[in-house]
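Good morning N.,

You mentioned wanting to compare the apo and holo forms, so I went ahead and generated the holo version with zinc ion. This is what I fed in:
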Amino acid sequence: MRISAVTENINDWSGSVLIAGILEGTIERQISSFNTIIKDTFLSQRFIDSKFKGTKNQKLSIELIEGNIKKVIFVGLGKAENLRIDDLRKAASICTRQVSGNERKVGIFFPWDAFDPSSAACAVGEAVRLSSIKDLRFKSEATDSSPIDEVELIGLDPKITPSAVAEINPICEGVKFARELVSAPPNVLTPYQMAKEAETIAAEYGLDLKILDKEECQELKMGAYLAVAKGSDLDPHFIHLKYSPKDPKHKVVLVGKGLTFDSGGYNLKVGASQIEKMKYDMGGSAAVLGTARTIAELKPSNIEVHFIVAACENMINGSALHPGDIITASNGKTIEVNNTDAEGRLTLADALVYACKLKPDAIVDLATLTGACVIALGDEIAGLWTDNDQLSEQLTKAASKAGEGIWRMPMQDSYKAGIKSSIADLQNTGPRPGGSITAALFLKEFVTSSIPWAHIDIAGTCWTEKDRDLNPKGATGYGVRMLVNWIKEMSQKP
Ligand code: TOD
Ligand code: ZN
Ligand code: ZN
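and this is what came out, ligand included:
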């Protein structure tokens, strides 16, 4: 899909489908701007007949016989004073879903003037791309119609938007990659295959890659990570990718939870705990590797970025973790495993200790960590835990710019009592109430306190059962766009 900005007057544009955003309240004035594409008397009548008032997400599709535009899709954007960039994203997504594969060239005409042109171009371009991606890898035949070939953002000055438009593709490729990693079933995306995927990006874009095998992890005394992995016939693979431009001023580490399958272990997932969905338990690592893919292509200057995944499976066999086992993480802390299904934090513990050894300016981890976070925030908002106000602000801004939901949650230190063990330094689960908070507090035990660190629980946002906005049902690729924005922002800091 090629996406470009074109200055043309709307009436000079040619293509097969035109998507036109209409503001509520000033329809008459807006109709006149389409006068040579569609006769305005006809248009006014159609708007009246269909009660189209331009309210948010209202749609009116008109097939045309004359001229080279075959179809115009009008989409309501609501009142001008309430218009947000997210409304453009939503409107573009809704309309994209109405465009069939035969209609190859699509034009989008929105009230761009209300926004910074680069941000608007990027937001709408991403929305179109991301809402039309279909994963057909596991179909024996390609049954779907071909995607849109070309998208033109009409009335945007290509002189002020070229760099923004050029970023749409690398960003969407990162999101697509993340979605594909998550949707890939656990018999395909194994810990080994995840390492292979990292190897592919490293080779393609020239990132440094280190894969630690089980023995190397043993040497580093990663007792928590290895304890989770040992219940599986598949070996763990600890992935460390590095992007380093010349003379970087900043250094950050992204850590992603990478459970290619989470059966729960001996605390087996039964009842409503959705064991059949647990291929998604590597959503954090998918966001991290998707970001690596995008960053490697965008090549921001000034910032070194490390991407870390302790990939493994949580399974059951004769040597799997027992509920009650006491294990030792690579920072020497002992953990009583009172629930084998709280395995994500065990793998992250050793990954965070490893991340701290890199002495970065900041660490951000992403994880499908707790059902409690899904209960609290649903599938549109991720939970953010950090003691660092500045980092919180940066990530919140980066997410908001991407249209990704995030909400800061409390790091309630007094709840640490919930993960106190009577026999070891810690136990890996606390009581059900506040379960996401104790999870964050557990992770905190493995981070050097002087390093700014944030934990993002994406158990809700990484997957959706709805088919809405930019996200077709299934894996969302959540986090990639936020992380890319954050890294770009950091790279600009002195
Ligand atoms: C938990 C600490 C972790 C586990 C999480 C996981 C739950 C699931 C769905 C609400 C529970 O009560 O079993 C919860 C609450 C909805 N389970 C979890 O949060 C055992 O899903 O396995 N992480 O690795
Ligand atoms: Zn689990
Ligand atoms: Zn898990």
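The chain has two domains: 2-156, 170-491.

Happy to go through it together on a call whenever suits you.

Best,
F.
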